[in-house]
Amino acid sequence: MTSQRSLRGRSAKQAGQVRAARRPTYDRPARKESSAGDNGSGRAAGQPTGLLSLAARTAAWAPTAARILLGLVLAWFGYHELVQPALWTGYVPLVHAQSAFAVAAVLAHGWLLLMLAVALVAGIMSRVAAAVTAVLLLEIVISLTVTGGLSDLTLRDVGVLGLAIILAGPAEQRLTLTR
User: Fold this and answer.
1) Which residue has the higher pLDDT, 151 or 29?
2) Handedness of CA 114, 118, 121, 125 (dihedral sign)
3) Which residues contact 55 (CB under 8 A, 6 or more apart)?
4) Which residues touch 101 (CB under 8 Å, ≥6 apart)?
5) Max CA distance (Å), the chain
6) d(CA 64, CA 175)
7) For helices 152-167 and 50-83, what crossing angle results, to 10°?
8) If we measure between CA atoms, which residue out of 169, 166, 161, 167 comes closest to residue 134?
9) What are the distances in angstroms from CA 153 to CA 8, 52, 140, 159, 168?
10) Are residues 117 and 71 in contact, defined by beta-carbon separation less than 8 angstroms?
11) Where do the domains of the chain lie?
């Protein structure tokens, strides 16, 4: 039995370690020797296991996946605006749909979407690209709300706008060419 006198002046953790060290070893299973930083399971000490490990990896890669998916959405719409601009001229506010200016505005918008998509997917200045995307989508949401009110189309763009705003923040992302 450990005397209280020998444990005085020690923290509770230190006292517990002293008591554990003085217990007989016959009731403990033998431990295999492990290297420094190894907890005996082949993993580094403090590294999560099982579902915690999956959640940690998912959390680490979520901004990257979101950035790439947002880039693919922008590429999809940019491509379609460049291929068939006449289908999109009706969304240009305050301009007649068949005017040359509306077609030029849709083509410029399509190119901008494609450039932002490339920047997001490649990870080139991804926060700046996400911020420019957020401003662009805010303009689209305001325009759609003013001209047509709230609709499923407007709410879809609100969701994409929210994603762009989150990606413009300071989250650490993987697979980027610039930070």
Assistant:
1) 151
2) negative
3) 48
4) 92, 95
5) 95
6) 7
7) 120
8) 161
9) 71, 37, 10, 10, 23
10) yes
11) 60-167
Q: What's the burial of 136, exposed, middle or buried (CB within 10 Å: 0-12/13-18/19+)?
A: middle
Q: Structure tokens of 84?
A: 């068939």
Query: Phi first, then psi: what are they for 93, rounded to 5°?
Result: -75, 150
Place of tokens 């033998």: 30
- Token readout for 92 is 């240009």
Whether pLDDT at 163 is above 60 = yes
CA angle 63, 67, 72 (to 5 degrees): 150
Two structure tokens written together for 32: 């295999």
Instruction: Note the pLDDT tens digit of each residue in 102-133.
Output: 999 999 999 999 999 999 999 999 999 999 99
- What distances in angstroms separate CA 34 from CA 11, 31, 39, 93, 119, one per listed residue? 27, 9, 7, 69, 46
pLDDT given at position 52: 78
Q: Does the predicted TM-score (pTM) go above 0.90?
A: no
d(CA 34, CA 78): 56
pLDDT tens-place string over residues 59-94: 888 889 999 999 999 999 999 999 999 999 988 888
pLDDT at 25: 52
